[in-house]
Specification:
Elements lengths: L11 H13 L4 H34 L6 H9 L16
Length: 93
Amino acid sequence: MKTEVIRARVPEALKRDFEAAAAARGWDMNHAIRQLMEQYVAYRKETDLRRIETFEALEDIEAGHVVDGDRVLDWLSSWGTNDESSPRNWPAA
């Protein structure tokens, strides 16, 4: 895997605290920064996906593609019974 060097200016106190937190876990600075970057990228991807899904859900609501809450509760109550229903069998609301 090809790697690159990254430089950043940060306040001295932040650098000291970050180094201490990394050292407490037995990590060197390279590993700690790589971990932090990986976590941030994963967080941003998840946040962006949730934002897209939220807008899609709002579009569904505006289009009337919703299921009554009581029907959902009835469906959940059927789980594990002989008469377990499927949401695919729901008639349109």
